[in-house]
C-alpha cells in the first residue's frame, strides 16, 4: 500500500478526532510513566509489554468503537479486529516500551488511519516533551505544542532542501543490528548520528535522512510514516525502494531529493546481522 498523491483530502473532523485521541493516550501513558503501579512481562516474540501499553491501546480501541464502529483496528498488543467499512486504524500504544520501562522519557504514542485510497492520517505524540506530529492526506503535516494539542495552534512541518548526498545528516536506528557492509557504506558518504525520534527530526528539518535496518520493524511501527513524511515533503520506502508498508520492514526516509542517491548507495547490501549471537566473552 503506497501513498496516493491525488487522493481526496481526509476529513478534517476525523483528523481533529485523531489528534484528541492521541492526546488522551499521551496523558494516560505520562501518568503511568510517573507511577509504580504497573507490571511488565515478556511477549512470545521476546519483547516487553507493560500494563500501561495494554491500557492505552484499550483506551484508543474503546474510543474508535464509539466513533467509527465500522472501521477495522490493528493494534500491537490486541491484534486485528475486522471492520465492514474497508478503513482501518493502526495503534502502537507506546512506541519505545523499553524507554518507558527504564524511565527514559523518549517514548511516543503512534496512531495511523488507512482509507480506501491508502495511508490517510499519521500521528506521533510525544507526551513527555509535549509535542505532537500529525498529518492528514491533502492537509499537510503539522507540529502541535502543549499538553492538549490542537491543530489551530500548530506550525507547518517541512523537510530540508539539501541535494548533496555527501555529508547529509542521517539518523540511524538500532545500529547494533546492522551488518558491517551497510554501516561502512553509509559511514563513508554521510554523517551518521544516533536517533530516537527519526521521523520527527526529519519532518522538522533537524535531519536530512534516516535509516532503520537490523531486526525488522512491525507494521504498527511504520504505519504512521507515509502520511507524515509525504505531507512534509519527504519520501519513505524500505531500503530497496519498495513501499514501506509492503517491503521488508527496513526503512529509508529522506527529504525526497536525496532518496535515489541513498537507494543506489545501499543497493544489494545486507540489511541485518544477529548481534545476539555474538560471543560476549570476546
Key phrases:
282 residues; alpha+beta; Fructose-1,6-Bisphosphatase, Chain A, domain 1; D-Maltodextrin-Binding Protein, domain 2; 2 domains; eight-stranded mixed β-sheet; five-stranded mixed β-sheet; 15 strands; globular; magnesium
Question: Helices and strands in order, then pairings?
Answer:
Layout: H1 12-33, E1 40-42, E2 48-50, H2 51-67, E3 72-75, E4 79-81, E5 88-95, H3 97-101, E6 108-115, E7 118-126, E8 131-136, E9 140-145, E10 155-156, E11 169-173, H4 180-189, E12 191-194, H5 198-203, E13 209-212, H6 219-222, H7 225-231, E14 235-237, E15 251-254, H8 259-266
Parallel strand pairs: 3-5, 11-12, 11-13
Antiparallel strand pairs: 1-2, 3-4, 5-6, 6-7, 7-8, 8-9, 9-10, 13-15, 14-15
